[in-house]
Amino acid sequence: MNYFVKGNPDLCIGCRTCMIGCVVAHEGKRIFEVDPDSYDFNPRLHVVRTVRLSVPVQCKHCENPACMAVCPVGAISQKDHCVIIDQDKCMGCKSCMDACPFGAINMTERKGHVQADGTLKKTANKCDLCYGLPGGPACVRVCPTEALALITEEDLETAMERKRAETARNTFRENHPQE
């Protein structure tokens, strides 16, 4: 089973700290110590803010990812409980972006990678659960209100068991009101 990050809109304040944490984690540098023009600010999640709601939107790491199914060059794969994009294989066709039911994939320019026409190469960009980085998803670690949580198979099993027990108790109470 693939893991994913779940956002709680009741706790999210829309501060976008998760976006900065994501960029810092993938840059491998302290973002405030480098020249702003020396890197691309391309977070792999985006905070949606409305009048009544704010919550990060990011890849759900589907079990049968539509993005992976439509990728013509096999740049998208599943590894270690997550769905990742090989930026070097990606040709920027946007098929994955179109196929994603959550709108969690966007296209970003890659500095230093120029196409035949002289323009910067664009590739797909999405949450990779900080694949290969120590400590798990940076967005979860830096969220000041703990609005984000990494959901694992064990978490889902625990939630299912809790819901089943609650359903059994409620059914018993409905059928035995005087006990």
Q: Can you tell me about this structure?
A:
This protein has helices spanning 17-27, 66-70, 95-99, 138-142, 153-175; strands spanning 4-7, 46-49, 54-57, 76-79, 82-85, 106-114, 120-125, 148-151. The strands form 4 sheets. The chain has a two-stranded antiparallel ribbon. Strands 2-3 form a two-stranded antiparallel sheet. It is α+β, with helices and mostly antiparallel strands and 179 residues long.
Question: Strand count, sense and closure of the main sheet?
Answer: 2 strands, antiparallel
**Ranges with pLDDT <50 over ≥5 residues?**
none
- Average per-residue pLDDT, rounded, comes to 90
> Regarding quaternary structure, how should these chains be classified?
single chain
Structural class: alpha+beta
* Spatial shape: globular
Rg measurement, Å: 20 Å
Number of DSSP helical runs: 5
Strand content: 15-25%
Number of strands: 8
Q: Main sheet: which strands, in order across?
A: 1-8
SSE string, helices as H and strands as E: EHEEHEEHEEHEH
Helical residue percent band = 25-40%
Q: State the distance separating the first and last CA atoms.
A: 41 Å
